[in-house]
Amino acid sequence: MAEVFLFQHLMFKKRDRYLMLTVDTEALSHRATDDHVRRLMLGEQEAGTAGVREMVAIGDEFNAKHIFFVDMCGAYDRLTEIQGVIRYLDQAGHDVQLHTHPEKLPASYWETRGFAPRPRLMNEYTTDARAQLIIREFAGLLSEQTGKPVLGHRAGSFRWNASTLRALFDAGIPVSFNNSSVAVKAGQAVYAKRTNWPFEWSNGIIEVPMTERAVFNRVRKDHWHARLTYPESHYFHFRPWWGPLLLNTLSDDLDFAVFLLHSWSFLDRDENGIFYYKDDRKVENYRKMLRRLTKDYDVITTAEFLELQALGKIPLGGVEDVRSAELIVPAIKPKKIKPKTKKIDKTKTEPKPASKKVDTKKAEVKASEVKKPETDKKEVTKVEDKETSKKSIENASESSH
Ligand SMILES: [Zn+2]
After folding, report:
1. What is the mean pLDDT of the segment spanning 2-30?
2. Of 234-238, 264-268, 313-317, where does mean pLDDT reach its minimum?
3. Residue 240: its pLDDT value, please?
4. How many CB atoms lie within 10 A of CB 237?
5. Residue 41 burial (C-beta neighbours within 10 Å; 0-12, 13-18, 19+)
6. Cα–Cα nearest to 101, from 74, 137, 68
7. Phi and psi of 96, rounded to 5°?
8. Which domains does the chain show, CATH number per domain?
9. Which residues make up the environment of ion ligand 1, defined by Cβ < 5 Å?
10. What's the 309 CA to ligand 1 centre distance in angstroms?
11. What spacing in Å lies between the alpha carbon of 63 and ligand 1's midpoint?
């Protein structure tokens, strides 16, 4: 009998597999025509309702807690309503953490705090003070509602840089959920360690990377990165790349996975980018997906992740220098050059004493990430020019703070 039991135990033993169900909860202005928080966070639409409450309900069916990263910048004029959503999610027993889209804040926000309105995007911040302001202020607003310290942060559109990591340390937020190769490819971030496994930054912040996978594109004959999202990208309309994960046959590196949803993930988008409710298909498919996933994975919150990590159940994959993610701004404004004759050698703009610490393998990854087709190089020149002038404006206006 004992042998039969042992055999069964070995055959059916559940491996330690962890899953984080993250939901970027946001009410961005261009995604609804009115009543943004109700429309885009709660998903209350003309024809039906499908938003964060439905996610909470489905999660509860399978005893799975979501991590709702809530943004308060996108609908700053509706802060009270957003705070209501935060309280609801927290009281429902799900995990509420910080998401930030400061590029959506009104100019008056910056004025009243003595900051220049630009640079708008968090990955373009050239001073730590700017990142500190955003992280501290909105983490504070979040904590006021939940009565708990904020444990994790995800930058809007994964737009972050080294300043973000330092601001997290400054605010006592231990976990960053920002590492993404897709964001680097899209020019939304300057650096990504190519891994799906949690690791540590040199300032002690723990990184939980967005789960992504390189996929070969048969048409373009190159690799691109796909995120673990629900619903799946249109490219995988017929067969999501993570399909095998549901059948428990994808066994290599996905013992730890981070799913990305948005508060509007159960809605459909019209030709103008406005979300609307079509039917309950996405809700039902999500229920089916969670039913399967929860059989093979332990769904964990940020606090549970920290606990497991401290117990050695999720060992971190090495230490990465924060300065690898430094925004590189040329010290001298580059001369206007004819784009045809002058090729931009990104490796020359990478540098920093810190890079010495980065091993060759990482450096290769970084260099390959910034490799772009010829047509894009002209744009790089433009962006850098703009960035240089932005920096001087920024320094001039912020040096006194
Ligand atoms: Zn977002």
Report:
1. 74
2. 234-238
3. 54
4. 9
5. buried
6. 74
7. -115, 120
8. 17-322 (3.20.20.370), 328-398 (no CATH)
9. 24, 26, 156
10. 26
11. 26
- Distance of CA 14 from the midpoint of ligand 1 (Å): 34
How far does residue 158's CA lie from ligand 1's centre (Å)? Answer: 8
Of the listed ranges 76-90, 135-149, 339-353, the one predicted with least confidence: 339-353
CA separation, residue 309 to residues 162, 170, 316, 352 (Å)? 23, 21, 7, 31
C-beta pairs of 327-332 under 8 Å, 24+ apart in sequence: 327/123, 327/124, 327/125, 327/126, 327/161, 327/162, 327/163, 327/190, 328/190, 328/352, 329/126, 329/384, 329/387, 329/388, 329/391, 330/384, 330/387, 330/388
Ligand 1 centroid to Cα of residue 368, in Å, is 26
| 138-161: average pLDDT | 98
Please state whether beta strands 199-201 and 206-207 pair in parallel, antiparallel, or not at all (unpaired): antiparallel
**24 Cα: distance to centroid of ligand 1 (angstroms):** 5
What one-letter code names the amino acid at 56?
V
Average pLDDT over residues 179-194: 94
Name the β-bridge partners of 68: 23, 96
Q: Which two tokens stand for residue 234?
A: 């249109």
Q: How far does the centroid of ligand 1 lie from the alpha carbon of residue 121, in Å?
A: 12
Q: Would you call 23 helix, strand, or coil by DSSP?
A: strand
Query: What pLDDT digit, counting tens, does each position of 263-308 carry?
Result: 999 999 999 999 999 999 999 999 998 998 898 899 999 999 999 9
Look-up of token digits 């003070």: 129
Q: Is the pTM of this model over 0.85?
A: no
